Amino acid sequence: VQIGVLGGTGPAGAALSVRLASVGYDVVIGSRSAERAAEICEDLAGKWPGRELRLAGADNATAAGADVVVVSTPWDAAASTAASVASSLDGKVVISIANAIARVENELQPLLLPRGSVAAGVQAAVPGALVAATLHHVPARELGAVDAPVEGDVLVCSDHLEATKQTAEIVDRIPGLRALDAGRLSNAAAVEAFTSVLLQLNIRYKTRAAVRFTGIRT
Ligand SMILES: NC(=O)c1ccc[n+]([C@@H]2O[C@H](COP(=O)([O-])OP(=O)(O)OC[C@H]3O[C@@H](n4cnc5c(N)ncnc54)[C@H](OP(=O)(O)O)[C@@H]3O)[C@@H](O)[C@H]2O)c1
């Protein structure tokens, strides 16, 4: 399976890309600048010299040609970035990882969006795609450290069963993560907003907290 990551040059997209490549996926890091994406691929390959990583850099339009596409831009660019490559996304699983959060001095505030969540905005922008929201709570630093497992449960929300299934399969390939079906895309609002709570805990307790649910046997 080939996975394209739109805006994959940022910390979250690059970390996800190298992690997915480390578990055998063929990954295309997308960017508004193909040169920047190529540089990030070189950096990642240089950081993990012993590994055979199938990572390539390209523009977002090329990355959108992959089998599964992740949108990893800042929250306010997610819908427009997906819309800019809409024709390539029809019928595909599109994964939204963005959190809409504002930092006001030392306080983190979840932003309430007209459609409830960033993911719902992406789904509205590309109605032909099968949008799933996931990976909001996994810190980029842990995700990108491919020699170690990543601890945590990862909630997946979508209005499309096929998108939930394919997204959960991808998440479950990452050592230490457990994907959980958290229902329809309407729940993405709660999942995205909760990231603000996690980040506040990180500030308060000087850590990078992860989410783990008790009582669910999978
Ligand atoms: N950091 C984390 O630990 C973490 C964890 C989970 C989820 N997330 C979410 O993951 C997403 C990406 O996080 P990040 O920290 O990697 O973000 P970022 O560095 O701010 O942005 C990621 C990339 O998006 C592209 N981009 C920036 N502004 C854009 C615009 N106006 N239009 C189109 N593309 C634009 C840029 O790529 P080019 O300039 O190369 O096009 C940039 O490198 C965020 O929505 C965040 O909430 C982050």
Summarize the structure.
The protein is α/β, with parallel strands linked by helices and 218 residues long.
What does this structure look like?
The chain is an alpha/beta fold. Helices cover 40% and strands 22% of the residues. The protein contains nine helices and ten strands. It has helices spanning 11-22, 34-47, 60-63, 75-84, 86-89, 118-125, 140-144, 161-172, 188-205; strands spanning 2-6, 26-31, 55-59, 68-71, 93-96, 101-104, 107-110, 130-133, 152-158, 177-181. Strands 3-2-1-4-5-8-9-10 form an eight-stranded mixed sheet, sandwiched between helices. A two-stranded antiparallel sheet has the order 6-7. Helix 4 (75-84) runs parallel beside helix 6 (118-125). It is globular and about 35 Å long. The protein starts with a strand and ends in a 13-residue tail after the last helix. It binds NADP nicotinamide-adenine-dinucleotide phosphate.
